């Protein structure tokens, strides 16, 4: 697979003046090209593609399956948590952690989302926490978990962490935010994810 540079992707997709709003050159992104981009090892390319996910001016044909979407965003979030990039397009570990709050809360509040998707997210997050450094673990607690646990249903959903010696500390520390009166508006975005074939809408949380 030939490598591609971020500037080539931008030139392919956008009219991008320096001091004016960008406008798309096309409406339909070829699916094979998009799949190549989301498989890139370049964290800036991944961040750029991630930033486009809620742009309703664009679509991908053929669309991503739900599994392809989840594989991409989990791989991207994992790299953000572990690498804490500081690029123009890629997310820091904290901005990725904040985005993840809305992903999970939106999925939780949408009854058409299969519960298995949420279980898989919980397993994935537990694995990232256990493998992470102290800095990664602190980020997961303060940027993600403590805001999720403001909701009683999500506190019950994550309650099994309290029984796991490797996760108990994270769960107990995250509960302190709620106990102290912390409040965060969660999962409010209703933007349709135009790139994914699934039974439910996906939210977009931050547009650069």
Structural summary, described in words:
Helix content is 53%, strand content 7%. By secondary structure, it is mainly α. It has two domains: 1-64, no CATH class; 92-189, no CATH class. The strands form three sheets. A two-stranded antiparallel ribbon has the order 1-2. A two-stranded parallel ribbon has the order 3-4. A two-stranded parallel ribbon has the order 5-6. The chain is elongated and about 50 Å long. The two termini are 29 Å apart. The model is unreliable at 188-192 and 198-208 (pLDDT under 50).
Topology overview:
Layout: H1 6-13, E1 14-15, E2 23-24, E3 28-30, H2 31-38, H3 43-51, E4 59-61, E5 64-65, H4 66-83, H5 93-109, H6 115-131, H7 134-148, H8 152-157, H9 168-179, E6 196-197
Parallel strand pairs: 3-4, 5-6
Antiparallel strand pairs: 1-2
Helix pairs in contact: 3-4, 4-5, 5-7, 7-9
Alpha-carbon distance between the termini? 29 Å
The strand line-up of the biggest sheet is 1-2
Note the beta-strand portion: 5-15%
The count of domains is: 2
What's the rounded overall pLDDT mean? 87
Rg for CA atoms: 18 Å
**Residue share in helix:** 40-55%
- As an assembly, this protein is single chain
What gross morphology would you assign?
A: elongated
Would you tell me the structural class of the helices and strands? mainly alpha
Largest sheet: 2 strands, antiparallel
* Total strands: 6
Order of helices and strands: HEEEHHEEHHHHHHE
Contiguous uncertain segments of 5+ residues = 188-192, 198-208
Q: How many helix segments?
A: 9
């Amino acid at each position: 697979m030939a490598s591609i540079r971020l500037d080539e992707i931008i030139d392919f997709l956008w009219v991008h003046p320096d001091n004016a709003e960008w406008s798309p050159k096309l409406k339909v992104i070829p699916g094979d090209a998009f799949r190549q981009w989301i498989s890139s090892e370049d964290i800036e390319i991944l961040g750029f593609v991630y930033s486009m996910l809620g742009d309703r001016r664009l679509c991908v044909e053929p669309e991503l399956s739900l599994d392809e979407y989840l594989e991409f965003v989990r791989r991207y979030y994992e790299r953000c948590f572990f690498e804490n990039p500081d690029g123009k397009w890629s997310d820091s570990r904290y901005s990725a952690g904040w985005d993840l709050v809305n992903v999970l809360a939106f999925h939780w509040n949408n009854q058409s989302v299969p519960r298995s998707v949420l279980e898989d997210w919980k397993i994935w997050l537990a694995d990232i926490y256990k493998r992470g450094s102290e800095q990664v673990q602190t980020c997961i607690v303060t940027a993600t978990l403590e805001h999720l646990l403001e909701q009683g249903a999500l506190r019950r959903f994550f309650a099994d962490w309290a029984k796991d010696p490797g996760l108990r500390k994270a769960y107990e520390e995250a509960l302190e935010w709620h106990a102290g009166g912390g409040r965060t508006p969660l999962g409010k975005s209703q933007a349709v994810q135009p790139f994914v074939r699934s039974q439910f809408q996906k939210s977009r949380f931050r547009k650069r």
